[in-house]
């Protein structure tokens, strides 16, 4: 799914809103009247809302601004009222310019519900934990940080224990540009957003404001959206599943590649076990794990399906094995950063001729000797967590938007694929696009999860998936396996081995 922007810089240097353009195109070419598009959006919101909140759940306060977000609020209130919900409407008079759709929806209330107008700070009602707030104050039209009446309303809401559902975007949050440190932004518990995820929603710094969010289609013109030149994407099930290659009935193990996993050191053989097992669970034909000698008995016992080659060194990897017989190579999980291991990494980078996935200490080794960056093969898949990525680029970022710019820059300049791990793992491709992952959960923020991902990506590379596909599909399936594991064990209890046991292809 494309992530459409409300503030996109054109080649000429000015800014446009892709969402507004898609809106206008839909209105003219579907065709549909603007007020009917709002009706459709509001109905779509309600269809999701009623799944989460039954009629007698809580008293609902619908807080409306006077633009189209407020118009949505009025239409949503009318629809929920007709379904029997107990609600009050408050209009926050932040401006004297009411939008045409807002006015029309005010008329459509037909005196059935009488909105309370709020024009002064002392008229803002009290909010408490038995209230369910629908935030329709401001959405995609936010043009400056909050101030005055609307800022005070949001402050009061944030201090209350009321439960909050935002319409489209929590009030005060810029959809795809940086808020100031001191900006007041509504802390929503849920956000139901229209048509496209907003870039702000996938950035960790905004997690407190957006809460759990869901996208609902409002039927904007697909062909128009298809033609937009987007830089940001959201990997949903439709995109990920389209990559999956079916296994032919007459296939044999030779069709699915022979992978080499170079992993482990004394005290970290577990990383070799996890990554190798995850690789096997992800469809590889054969795997050889190359580990220091101390890992031999452990690996042969723990993973009978894998072949094991050992380095002469007992404790860490030192000597380059033959790389000829493999379709893909994985390197880095638990290898440590001994100087001799660093020498091995340099040799691998110089000699590798097949797709490669590089993780953990292999990345740290590259980061500590920047000349190795020049040896990164085109199309290499790198799987750093944020600290490892900071070491690679040699600097810290001030905010998540700067992080995205650095990520894009790195992937383009090194022509490689970077999977920056975290909630909504960001996969940057050599063409400069960034693809945020839709699966996964906080239970995966534990030792070993990254080793599992490396193994999964290695398996896909060995099976002949293009590096871009292997990264996007691997990250998606890894998160999905994590979500299944969380259902079985809970996010606190689940461990990396549970993720492996939940891989399903
Ligand atoms: N395609 C879609 O997704 C659709 C979305 N819909 C809904 O429409 C809103 C966007 O509506 P819009 O009218 O463009 O914008 P808002 O309602 O968010 O706000 C506009 C008004 O707010 C004023 N404004 C802006 N910033 C501030 C501020 N910091 N403090 C106070 N007031 C502010 C702005 O005034 P100006 O002075 O800047 O002119 C406007 O008056 C979208 O979010 C969806 O909810 C449609 O329903 C269907 C299609
Ligand atoms: K809102």
From TrEMBL:
Annotated positions binding AMP: 421-425, 450
Transmembrane segments: none
KW Nucleotide-binding (keyword) present: yes
Chain ranges of the YjeF C-terminal domain: 236-505
Cofactor binding, per record: Binds 1 potassium ion per subunit.
GO molecular function, one term: metal ion binding
Classification via InterPro entries: Carbohydrate_kinase_pred_CS, CARKD, Nnr, Ribokinase-like, YjeF_N_dom, YjeF_N_dom_sf
Pfam families hit by this protein: Carb_kinase (PF01256), YjeF_N (PF03853)
Domain YjeF N-terminal, first and last residues per copy: 19-226
Enzyme Commission identifier(s): 4.2.1.136, 5.1.99.6
CDD domains: YXKO-related
Positions contributing to (6S)-NADPHX binding: 68-72, 139-145, 168, 271, 334, 385, 451
Catalytic reaction equation(s): (6R)-NADHX = (6S)-NADHX; (6R)-NADPHX = (6S)-NADPHX; (6S)-NADPHX + ADP = AMP + phosphate + NADPH + H(+); (6S)-NADHX + ADP = AMP + phosphate + NADH + H(+)
PROSITE patterns (UniProt xref): YJEF_C_2 (PS01050), YJEF_C_3 (PS51383), YJEF_N (PS51385)
Cofactor: Mg(2+); K(+)
Biological process according to GO: metabolite repair; nicotinamide nucleotide metabolic process
Keyword annotations: ATP-binding, Isomerase, Lyase, Metal-binding, Multifunctional enzyme, NAD, NADP, Nucleotide-binding, Potassium
Highest taxon above the source species: Bacteria
Binding site for K(+): 69, 135, 171
Function: Catalyzes the epimerization of the S- and R-forms of NAD(P)HX, a damaged form of NAD(P)H that is a result of enzymatic or heat-dependent hydration. This is a prerequisite for the S-specific NAD(P)H-hydrate dehydratase to allow the repair of both epimers of NAD(P)HX.
Entry similarity comment: Belongs to the NnrE/AIBP family. In the C-terminal section; belongs to the NnrD/CARKD family.
Subunit structure and binding partners: Homotetramer.
Protein name: Bifunctional NAD(P)H-hydrate repair enzyme
């Amino acid at each position: 799914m494309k992530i459409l922007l409300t503030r996109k810089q054109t080649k000429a240097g000015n800014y446009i809103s892709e969402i507004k353009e898609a809106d206008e195109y839909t209105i003219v070419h579907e065709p549909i009247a603007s007020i009917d598009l709002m009706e459709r959006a509001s109905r779509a919101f309600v269809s999701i809302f009623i799944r989460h909140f039954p009629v007698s759940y809580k008293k609902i306060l619908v807080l409306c601004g006077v633009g189209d977000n407020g118009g949505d609020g009025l239409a949503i209130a009318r629809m929920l009222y007709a379904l029997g919900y107990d609600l009050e409407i408050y209009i926050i008079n932040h401006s004297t310019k009411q939008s045409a759709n807002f006015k029309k929806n005010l008329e459509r209330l037909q005196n059935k519900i009488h909105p309370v107008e709020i024009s002064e700070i002392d008229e803002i009602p009290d909010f408490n934990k038995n209230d369910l707030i629908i935030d329709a104050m401001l959405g995609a039209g936010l043009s400056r940080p909050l101030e005055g009446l609307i800022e005070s309303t949001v402050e009061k809401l944030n201090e209350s224990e009321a439960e909050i559902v935002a319409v489209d975007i929590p009030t005060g949050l810029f959809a795809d540009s940086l808020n100031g440190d001191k900006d007041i932004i509504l802390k929503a518990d849920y956000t139901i957003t229209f048509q496209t995820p907003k870039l702000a929603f996938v950035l960790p710094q905004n997690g407190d404001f957006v809460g759990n969010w869901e996208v609902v289609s409002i039927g904007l013109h697909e062909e128009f959206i298809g033609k937009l030149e987007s830089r940001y994407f959201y990997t949903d099930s439709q995109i990920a599943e389209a990559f999956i290659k079916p296994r032919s009935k007459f296939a044999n193990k030779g069709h699915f590649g022979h992978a080499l996993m170079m992993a482990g050191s004394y005290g970290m053989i577990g990383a070799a076990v996890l990554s190798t097992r995850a690789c096997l669970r992800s469809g590889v034909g054969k795997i050889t794990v190359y580990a220091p000698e101390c890992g031999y008995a452990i690996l042969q016992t723990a993973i009978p399906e894998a072949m094991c080659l050992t380095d002469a060194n007992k404790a860490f990897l030192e000597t380059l094995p033959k790389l000829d017989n493999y379709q893909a190579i994985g390197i880095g999980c638990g290898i440590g950063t001994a100087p001799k291991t660093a020498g091995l990494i340099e040799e691998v980078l110089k000699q590798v001729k097949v797709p490669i996935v590089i993780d953990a200490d292999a990345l740290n080794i590259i980061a500590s000797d920047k000349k190795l960056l020049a040896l990164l093969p085109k199309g290499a898949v790198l799987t750093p967590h944020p600290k490892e990525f900071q070491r690679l680029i040699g600097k810290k970022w001030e905010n998540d938007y700067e992080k995205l710019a650095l990520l894009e820059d790195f992937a383009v300049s090194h022509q490689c694929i970077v999977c920056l791990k975290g909630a909504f793992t960001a996969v940057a491709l050599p063409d400069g696009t960034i693809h945020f992952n839709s699966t996964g959960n906080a239970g995966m923020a534990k030792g070993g999860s990254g080793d599992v991902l490396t193994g999964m990506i290695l398996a896909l590379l060995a099976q002949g998936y293009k590096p871009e596909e292997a990264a996007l599909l691997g990250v998606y399936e890894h998160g999905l396996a994590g979500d299944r594991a969380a259902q079985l064990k809970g996010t606190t209890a689940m461990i990396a081995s549970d993720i492996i046991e939940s891989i399903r292809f």
